[in-house]
């Protein structure tokens, strides 16, 4: 049976219910963190000008079965003043969501997920340990705070051999 996939929204829920954004047996490697100029996709997602400084954090989630996902988050650059840890290559005890909420009071209350199958870009392939151009599941997440302002845009490339499953209470 393929291994379960833990998505960004799953991690937010885990953080809020358990105080930890990882499932038992999972670990995270922070690949990079810092301010970068927003490309057109990120600028559009965050509602900023192309080229504006935005925070980018890239991390790889792993478990005993291998790579779960390569996740990149972009956040408005002004959040670096309230939470300079976002610019440091190291784990955040409460993930980006918890840190932003603690420092600014901005709580992620709404999200939109987009899922597609895409060819893995060459620069992402080494992190997923598959060949460039391999079709992979890509999930993009937009998060908004209680004031309707975007707090984070994330793009995840899912590791091979994973199952995306969701359970909902319909009552």
Give the end-to-end Cα distance, rounded to a whole number of Å: 29 Å
Strand order of the largest sheet: 2-3-4-7-6-5
Domain unit count: 1
Can you name the CATH architecture?
Answer: 3-Layer(aba) Sandwich
Figure out the total of helices: 5
The CATH topology turns out to be Chorismate lyase
Percent helix range? 10-25%
Shape: globular
CATH class, named Alpha Beta
Strand percentage lies at: 35-45%
The secondary structure category is alpha+beta
Could you tell me the mean pLDDT? 87
Radius of gyration: 16 Å
Total beta strand runs? 8
Low-pLDDT runs of 5+ residues are none
Strand count, sense and barrel status of the largest sheet are:
6 strands, antiparallel
Reading the helices and strands in chain order gives EHEHEEHHEHEEE
């Amino acid at each position: 049976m393929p291994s379960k996939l833990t998505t960004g929204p799953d991690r937010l829920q885990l953080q809020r219910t358990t105080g930890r954004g990882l499932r038992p047996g999972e670990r995270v490697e922070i690949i990079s963190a810092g301010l970068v100029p927003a490309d057109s996709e990120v600028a559009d997602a965050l509602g900023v000008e192309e080229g504006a400084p935005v925070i980018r954090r890239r991390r790889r989630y792993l478990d005993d079965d291998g790579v779960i996902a390569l996740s990149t988050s972009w956040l408005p650059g002004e959040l670096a003043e309230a939470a300079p840890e976002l610019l440091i290559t190291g784990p955040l005890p409460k993930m980006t969501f918890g840190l932003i909420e603690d420092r600014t009071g901005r709580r992620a209350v709404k999200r939109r997920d987009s899922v597609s199958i895409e060819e893995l870009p060459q620069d992402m392939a080494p992190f997923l340990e598959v060949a460039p151009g391999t079709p992979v599941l890509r999930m993009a997440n937009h998060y908004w705070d209680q004031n309707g302002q975007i707090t984070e845009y994330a793009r995840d490339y899912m590791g091979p051999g994973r199952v995306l499953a969701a359970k909902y209470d319909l009552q």
